[in-house]
Amino acid sequence: METIISKSREILGKEAATKGAGLIREAIREKGEANIIVATGASQFEMLRVLVKEDVDWSVVTAFHLDEYIGLPITHPASFRKYLKERFVDIVKPKEFVYVNGETDPVKECKRLGDLISKLTIDVAFVGIGENGHLAFNDPPADFETEEPYIIVNLDEACRRQQLGEGWFPTFDDVPKQAISMSIKQIMKAKAIICTVPDLRKAEAVKKTIKEPVSPLVPATVMRNHDNAWIYLDYDSASLL
């Protein structure tokens, strides 16, 4: 995993988006299409603002996203479907965007998503890491062994408090306790991983991700086992390195 440190979150976002867009274009040149994973959350704002302006033929791109709360309607401000529809899908209009629907039977939804993504090779996965070191909604201790592409997960307190702290929910009790998440093994199947992690509040998680042994206790450490992974930091998130 290569580490890139930028002066600001704006520069970080630009560099991550530029690298990711280049990888998408490369996939399109090689096979005429590309398959990607798009992340959500406050950490992805700057990256997505640049990515949607990149010179990419989105008409041949199929995209998935990492996770969604169980039981949360798409109209809720915290819905990841809403987030991506407004910040990505409606702007670039990709060939297909496969939403994670948390309002239906979660077991059947995991199977539906798994059947779809298992047929494809993911060229680029855009991800972030949580304050607790999670990757997607795989909170510690994460399941590094399951072969299922999407799984039902219980969100730990630290994860739920992060969502509250970012302003997505009015109270802690409003934060859902379960979600559908892409699994660790499925994320690691991507040919390339672009990890965008700004902000001082992520500094401890970044330090553990880069310095501590690869372990389910710090799920993001698994990216160090990937041959083509880049983690983009700003001075704040890199301050404990």
Q: What structural class do you assign from the helix and strand content?
A: alpha/beta
What is the CATH architecture annotation?
3-Layer(aba) Sandwich
Q: Alpha-carbon distance between the termini? A: 15 Å
- Number of E strands: 10
Order of strands in the sheet with most strands: 1-10-9-6-2-3-5
Number of helices: 7
Residue-averaged pLDDT = 97
Q: Specify the biggest β-sheet.
A: 7 strands, parallel
- The percentage helix is 25-40%
How many structural units, i.e. domains? 1
The percentage of residues in β strands lies in 15-25%
Low-confidence stretches: none
**Form type:** globular
Q: Name the CATH class.
A: Alpha Beta
Order of helices and strands: EHEHEEHEHEEHEHEHE
Radius of gyration: 16 Å
Q: Could you give the topology of this structure?
A:
Blueprint: E1 2-6, H1 9-31, E2 34-38, H2 45-51, E3 61-65, E4 67-69, H3 80-92, E5 96-98, H4 106-117, E6 124-127, E7 150-154, H5 157-165, E8 178-182, H6 184-188, E9 192-197, H7 203-211, E10 229-234
Parallel strand pairs: 1-10, 2-3, 2-6, 3-5, 6-9, 9-10
Antiparallel strand pairs: 4-8, 7-8
Molecular structure report:
This protein is α/β, with parallel strands linked by helices and 241 residues long. The chain has a single domain (2-151, 179-234), classed as Rossmann fold, CATH 3.40.50. 32% of the residues lie in helices and 20% in strands. The chain has seven helices and ten strands. The strands form two sheets. A seven-stranded parallel β-sheet has the order 1-10-9-6-2-3-5, covered by helices on one side. It has a three-stranded antiparallel β-sheet with strand order 4-8-7. Helix 1 packs across helix 2 (45-51). The longest helix is centred in the N-terminal third of the chain and has 23 residues, at 9-31. The two termini are 15 Å apart.
